[in-house]
Amino acid sequence: MCVTELEERNFEQRCAIKFCVKLGETSIEAFSKLKQAYGEHALSRSQVFKWYKAFSEGCESIKDELRSGRSSTSKTDNNVEKV
User: Fold this and answer.
1) Contact 69, 52 (CB under 8 A)
2) N or C: which end of the chain has fewer CB atoms below 10 A?
3) Rounded to the nearest 5 degrees, what angle is found at the Cα of 31, between the Cα atoms of 43 and 65?
């Protein structure tokens, strides 16, 4: 799976979590629905709870926060073969 597919799926799930918060569902209900919809590709329980808490506290941004360090695009099939 390429990085953009992973980023897109994670973005979709954050949208779903925000939607669940707005509907008044619990974090456990949101996690359960993500597991049902995405199966093994669902965000981890801790990530769902982290985003749920952020949206519950008024966060509106669905974008992931920038982090320092190597970009995730540095790990491509082509680079892995070179190493």
Assistant:
1) no
2) C
3) 45
The DSSP element (H or E) to which 11 belongs, if any, is helix 3-23
What pLDDT sits at residue 73? 58
23 close to 74: Cβ distance less than 8 angstroms: no
Read off the pLDDT of residues 48-81 as tens digits, 9 standing for 90 and up.
999 999 999 999 988 866 556 665 555 666 665 6
- For 19, the 3-state DSSP assignment is helix
pLDDT digit string, tens, across residues 12-45: 999 999 999 999 999 999 999 999 999 999 999 9
Residues counted in the chain: 83
How many Cα neighbours within 13 Å face the side chain of 32?
A: 5
Distance CA 19, CA 24 (A): 9
Task: Please identify which residue in the block is written with the tokens 């082509």.
Answer: 78
